[in-house]
Amino acid sequence: MKDISKKKSEMTRNKIKTLLNLIEKCNNIFLEDIKNNENEFKIILREKKPYSKRKYSRRIIISNSYKIKTYSISTYEIHKNKNDDEKYLEIYNAKVEGNYDIKTIAKDLKEIIHGKDEIKIRPNFPF
């Protein structure tokens, strides 16, 4: 598990540790990167290879704001061109505002890891 900056509060370090514990269970599937600044922390996950029926690997970004009570989870397909440059195609994006706890973020992340981002809904659903 990566070392977490000492300048952030104990609560923030505990949030990140909780998410990293969930991610560690998927360690053979994802590479992780943590970005931490005065406004937010981000955990960036990258699938090592496409899972099962998918053609492309995914990149998952979890952002949690320190100042405003919000977090977001975005997923992208990783496409490569002939020069091996990466391009990201967004396939899912959810932003949650208001009163939530780390269990909510962990639940959402777990659902994304298991494929929630691949569910297609008709634009005029449920009509």
List keywords for this structure.
127 residues, five-stranded antiparallel β-sheet, 2 helices, globular, disordered N terminus
Question: How would you characterize this protein structure?
Answer:
The longest helix is centred in the N-terminal third of the chain and has 15 residues. This protein has a domain of 88 residues. 21% of the residues lie in helices and 36% in strands. It is globular, with a radius of gyration of 16 Å. Helix 1 runs parallel beside helix 2. The N terminus and C terminus are likely disordered. Strand 4 and strand 5 form a beta hairpin. A 5-stranded antiparallel β-sheet has the order 1-2-3-4-5, covered by helices on one side. With 127 residues, it is α+β, with helices and mostly antiparallel strands. It starts with 9 loop residues before the first helix and ends in a 14-residue tail after the last helix.
